[in-house]
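User: quick one - fold this with 2-acetamido-2-deoxy-beta-D-glucopyranose bound?
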Amino acid sequence: MSSKVIFLLALLCVSLSPAPAAAHRPRFLAGVTGDALVQKACRGVGKYEPECLKILRATDKLDKGDSMDLAFFTLRYVESHAYNLTVEIKKAAAEPDLGPMFQSALAECMEQYIPLDDLVEDGINAMLAEANSDSRDFIDAAITSMDICDGQLQSSYEEEKADKETKSDSSPDFQIAEALKQHNEFLRAMLKAALNIIN
Ligand SMILES: *[C@@H]1O[C@H](CO)[C@@H](O)[C@H](O)[C@H]1NC(C)=O
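Assistant: Sure. Structure tokens for the protein plus 2-acetamido-2-deoxy-beta-D-glucopyranose:
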């Protein structure tokens, strides 16, 4: 292989790597690397802590001990998961026989998920610009938007339960709501992991 080809391949690899190269990059949690970094990120994020550890351990970023790469990976993961979730919500909303209050809760969740992507993106950009406190604010706002979705799901659950004695916890509304709440909790856990790194 000619050195020119090798050079181009190397360039391609660099351009495909997930974190954009910054001239000089801040190191969060200076001195914490590898598995200790992952443990620090996932500590105290809630019941999805084991899942958090599993996901972050599975990245190929760890041996470099680069906390910024890990925060970047975590936020990108949240974006991807949140996007996938909007696809699921759209499918769920098409189910027949959903209660009207639950349908409006789903619509509200969609409205929260769309800006979520922008908030996380803004969080990433602020982090890359070393504006850590801005970055934290964006991530906090993303967490709040999931809280709003949860609140809507919860109140639709209560209203429908009060409204229709016949609706049971096994009805599709409640199953979808429960699944969505679990997803929200998982995403919040991953956002908290990013905050643990940036803080
Ligand atoms: C989102 O869905 C795509 C396509 O199915 C999948 O490759 C990706 O891993 C999913 N993202 C997450 C974070 O689960």
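One thing worth noting: Residues 77, 80-81, 84 surround 2-acetamido-2-deoxy-beta-D-glucopyranose (CB under 6 Å).
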